[in-house]
Write a structure and sequence with these properties.
α3 packs parallel to α4. The protein has an 8-stranded parallel sheet with strand order 3-4-5-6-7-8-9-10. 48% of the residues are buried. The longest helix is centred in the middle third of the chain and has 16 residues. The chain contains 12 helices and 14 strands. The radius of gyration is 19 Å and the shape is globular. By secondary structure, it is an alpha/beta fold.
Length: 372
């Protein structure tokens, strides 16, 4: 496994005015912002040589991250998770205190005994439910959610959280409706039947999801990505298909984007940061396949600061990024801090590593904040 540092191609701007909501432009933007070191409660590292690029990119800012298990083959057992975690730790800089938290891949064959074993391991954060066929490497996911009752009951009993990619996969359901239908068919019944089960609806994309989480009981929460508060489906489809903005669940219309923005800046502890950073090499993204995923790790906190700055809500960033996720998962808040400075620059146009090239999310576009 290579430890060669990735090469980043970026052009730094000399000046660029921050965008803001003109209705609340009376606020003065601070020159710097110090917050508790944040955590990323949902992301993808992949495996193999790519780890030497993806892991340091996240560890530069985040203290902890929940690592998704949709590898090939998937991370379905505690033993596989520990092996994967060892690979991650092997590429960290010696001075790093970054902590990967491992999610296990829920399958139709997961048993209550598997859950009990996972509950005893402090490195395991929970189980990830992928409906089979919903997203990248999800073919081994759950095919019949209604049959998972004994496993969910055991998760509730032992305090093991359920992390959900909330989309149905039936071909007759419009792709823009799949999150809403999943909530109606499956998520609402799960939260009612298992009221002591911690549930995180990952990377929410709709007003329906934000409203559901807000109104559900206190053990239901959601992560929100930078792309879903910075963009809507116009950014994916107008003027051609912009493949590097393509992710699943797919970007929705502006009214849903605005609902997610308001959830993120609300100060409601049910909503917290999860980038869903998902690297795919440029050659794989720019094909008829158009792999789903936005690779945001190299500019993650800066992207959230961009969004919160546009909404004149930078005072809400710390809770969303640094406090609410830790509180929900019962982990101590971090004691270190990071400082963001208002210094316009441009996000990397490309990232290269091991002879491959990636085009990160927001490639080449202006950002107003960067980590000091």
């Amino acid at each position: 496994m290579s430890n060669t540092a990735p090469s980043i191609s970026a052009i730094h701007a000399t000046s660029s005015a921050p965008r803001s909501d003109s209705s609340s432009s009376s606020h003065t933007t601070p020159a710097s912002l110090t917050i508790t070191r944040p955590d990323d409660w949902h992301l993808h590292f992949r495996d193999g040589d790519m780890l030497a690029m993806t892991v340091p990119a996240t560890a530069r800012v985040f203290r902890r991250a929940i690592v998704m298990p949709n590898l090939v083959p998937p991370v379905t057992t505690v033993a596989l998770a520990e092996q994967y975690r060892h690979h991650i730790m092997a590429v960290l800089p010696e001075e790093s205190n970054f902590e990967p938290l491992m999610a296990l891949y829920l399958t139709q064959g997961t048993s209550p005994a598997d859950v009990r074993e996972a509950a005893q391991n402090p490195n395991i954060i929970g189980y990830k439910l992928y409906p089979a066929g919903a997203t990248t490497n999800s073919s081994s996911g759950v095919r019949t959610i209604d049959a998972m009752g004994p496993v969910l009951e055991t998760m509730q009993e032992f305090g093991v959280p359920l992390l959900i990619h909330g989309e149905v996969t039936e071909p007759e359901i419009d792709i823009f409706d799949r999150e809403r239908v999943f909530i109606e068919r499956y998520l609402a019944p799960i939260t009612q039947k298992f009221p002591r089960l911690k549930v995180v609806l990952e990377h929410i994309t709709t007003k329906d999801a934000a409203d559901f989480v807000r109104e559900a009981h206190d053990l239901v929460a959601a992560t929100i990505t930078p792309q879903h508060i910075l963009m809507n489906r116009n950014d994916l489809l107008v003027g051609g298909v912009h493949v590097h903005n393509y992710c699943l669940p797919v970007l929705k219309r502006r009214t849903h984007q605005e609902a997610l923005q308001q959830a993120a800046i609300s100060g409601n502890p049910k909503f917290f940061l999860g980038t869903d950073s998902a690297p795919h090499v440029q050659a794989a993204k720019e094909t008829a396949c158009g792999c789903a995923g936005c690779f945001s790790a190299f500019t993650a906190i800066e992207l959230y600061a961009e969004a919160f700055g546009q909404l004149n809500a930078l005072d809400k960033l710390e809770g969303f990024a640094s406090h609410f996720g830790a509180d929900f998962y019962g982990r101590p808040r971090n004691t270190e801090t990071i400082t963001l400075v208002q210094k316009p620059w441009h996000a990397p146009k490309t990232v290269t590593h091991g002879g491959e090239t990636w085009v990160p999310y927001w490639a080449g576009r202006a950002l107003q904040w960067q980590v000091a």
